[in-house]
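Re: the 123-residue chain
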Amino acid sequence: MGGIASAPLPDAVIDLKKLKAINATALADINGGAATVYGVEIDASANSGEDVFVKFVDSLTATPGSDDPVLQLRCTKALTQTFMFPRGLPFGTGISAWAAQEKTIAGVTNPSGTVNVTLLLGA
C-alpha cells in the first residue's frame, strides 16, 4: 500500500539566496560560512542553447575547472527546475558555486544564456 512521505522543513530556515546570472566564474562563500542546503531552483528559461550544470563545493573559494564539486545539478535548457533535499545537504565550511555547459570537472564554458539560481538554506 502506497502513501505520501513528507518531511518537515527545518526549524532554522534562515535564508533564500538568489544567484543572478551565474556562470563559469565562481561565486565564493555565498552564505558567509557553513549552511545546509534544503532546496535549489535553477532558472534556465533564458538559456535555450544547451543544458546547464550548476556545481557546488564545500569551500570558501572555488576554482572552476579544477575543483571537484560535492553537488552538481543538471537543468534542461529553456526550463526552470527545482531540486529539494528534505533532510538537507550540509556544507560545513561554506558554499561556492558556478555554472557551465559541461558536466565534466574541467568544463568552464559559460552558459549561452542567463541562468539564475535560488538556494533555500538552513543553519
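The mean pLDDT is 93.
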